[in-house]
């Protein structure tokens, strides 16, 4: 084992050894075998790296072509949309949303599932809707918690525990459920 360590040092820093010391170490048949294996391994790694680099280049070229095709498609779509607007075939309404006003948006999924999006909504509004939906009461142990503003989504088909876990992921929010109560601290 000590000889192998010496062989590794020799290959890393051959300038620290005289020609005689190098020759003496390589005269040992076992050391010669280890040295040849090290050389073959290094050649194998070099070949693999070259193949890998070629593969990476091919992927980069493919990605570039895909990007060009995607950009062409977007341009094509934009031209058709603009032509449609100029011909009067499309009406466009401008809507302005103010971030300081809380809002909630529903997105209907299949069946009775609905995604409810709360944008800049107070925790009081969010918990109020959860409580109504799940037939619970809300207790606030910290009055400041009522006014914490959040942006979150709620899938009404998901269990209440999942929404509580999501809300508890926010800083300064701590909610737990006991029997028929949601407790906000």
List key phrases describing it.
185 residues, alpha+beta, three-stranded antiparallel beta sheet, three-stranded mixed beta sheet, 54% helix, 18% strand
Give the CA-based shape. elongated
Distance between the termini: 64 Å
Structural class by sheet pairing and helices:
alpha+beta
The total of helices stands at 5
* Residue-averaged pLDDT: 78
Strand proportion, as a percent range, falls in 15-25%
- Annotation, overall tally of beta strands: 6
Helix content: 40-55%
Question: How would you classify the quaternary structure?
Answer: single chain
Largest sheet: 3 strands, antiparallel
The side-by-side strand order for the widest beta sheet comes to: 1-2-4
Q: Ranges with pLDDT <50 over ≥5 residues?
A: 89-101
Order of H and E elements: HHHEEHEEHEE
Radius of gyration, taken over Cα atoms and rounded to an integer in Å: 34 Å
Please give a structural write-up.
This protein is of the alpha+beta class. It is about 55% helix and about 20% strand. The chain has helices at about 1-10, 20-25, 30-85, 125-135, 160-170; strands spanning about 105-110, 115-120, 135-140, 150-155, 175-180, 180-185. The protein has a three-stranded antiparallel beta sheet with strand order 1-2-4. The relative contact order is 0.07.
